[in-house]
Amino acid sequence: MDAAPTTIDHLVLPVRDLDLARARYEALGFSVAPDAQHPFGTENACVFLRDGTYLEPLGIADRTLAEIESRKGNPFLRRDQAYRFRVDEEGLSMVAMRSENAAADLKAYLDGGFAFGELFRFSRVAETPGGPVEIGVKLAFAADDRAPDAAFFACQRMNMDALWDAERTSHKNGVIGISAVLMSEENPTDFQYLLQSATRMRDFASSSNGLSFHMDGADIFCFTPNAMQQLFAIPTSRAERGVRFEGVVFTCSAVRELRSQLVAAGIECFDHLGRLIVPAAPGQGVPFIFEEVSS
């Protein structure tokens, strides 16, 4: 943790059907980028946000290829397949953290005892308003064996700036960016070292609710199930221990207008402690929570 603290880069959200996920995200007022395929059997339809983060609804384009590549040791696929088997085909399985040097982050994960797999790199051609562009990432994964349903990875972007054009980052729902990622665990302090390693933060806030990591631009909250229910109206009762991602909080320029849009579209939502809560639904594997900020 000698490097500067990092922040959230993007979220990996497994989906059962990418077309259904696209329809759900668009109904929620998000602008969704064209479908894209990875060279190892998965596909996505990303949502790019104005704060520089993005959401990655992740589907399976070629299940046979994905299984073959997973058996070869692809850490991204191994974590995705484990989540789909243990939890569900839909949810929030991994959180990517911003990185300028994924190789150095992997070494830090190794030193901390949290490294999962080798440094992983891939690239693909992306369609942008200016034409096709080759983009890529270098990834270093961190996980705790006691928490098989959640993983982090350092994400070093390569040539991806062209994806954040004005059209893709303009959303009818007024969403500006990610405010927080929510996690739950019966005893959050059991996993403080994993969270410190992922965020590169020695200092964090601790209370009876759990742990709070206040990063530049976004937070990670790891709260007890009771606190998660009270603060965010998210039920998290389950038999097994281990941290798990439970929801996403977005910054939004006009929550009242968004609520009217969702009600008119027949989408379930409700107010709770000044936030607008949209429960999980097909195509949206975890609750989405919207809180208002000045744009």
Structural write-up:
With 295 residues, the protein is an alpha+beta fold. The chain folds into two domains: 8-163, Roll (2,3-Dihydroxybiphenyl 1,2-Dioxygenase, domain 1), CATH 3.10.180.10; 175-292, 2,3-Dihydroxybiphenyl 1,2-Dioxygenase, domain 1 (Roll), CATH 3.10.180. 23% of the residues lie in helices and 35% in strands. It contains seven helices and 17 strands. It has helices at residues 18-27, 63-71, 75-86, 102-112, 192-199, 225-232, 255-264; strands spanning 8-14, 36-37, 42-44, 47-48, 54-60, 94-98, 115-128, 131-142, 151-158, 175-184, 205-207, 210-214, 219-223, 244-252, 270-272, 275-278, 288-292. Strands 1, 2, 3, 4, 5, 6, 7, 8 and 9 form a nine-stranded mixed β-sheet that branches. An eight-stranded mixed β-sheet has the order 11-12-13-10-14-17-16-15. Strand 12 and strand 13 (219-223) form a beta hairpin. Helix 2 packs across helix 3. It starts with 7 loop residues before the first strand and ends with a strand. 44% of the residues are buried.
How many angstroms separate the termini?
33 Å
> What would you say the CATH architecture of the largest domain is?
Roll
Total of DSSP H or I helical runs spanning 4+ residues: 7
CATH fourth-tier homologous superfamily of the largest domain = 2,3-Dihydroxybiphenyl 1,2-Dioxygenase, domain 1
For the biggest sheet, the summary is: 9 strands, mixed
- SSE sequence, one letter per element: EHEEEEHHEHEEEEHEEEHEHEEE
- The total number of structural domains is 2
What Rg, in angstroms, do the CA atoms define? 18 Å
User: Shape from CA axes?
Assistant: globular
Number of strands: 17
Mean of pLDDT: 94
What is the CATH C level class of the largest domain, in words? Alpha Beta
Low-confidence stretches: none
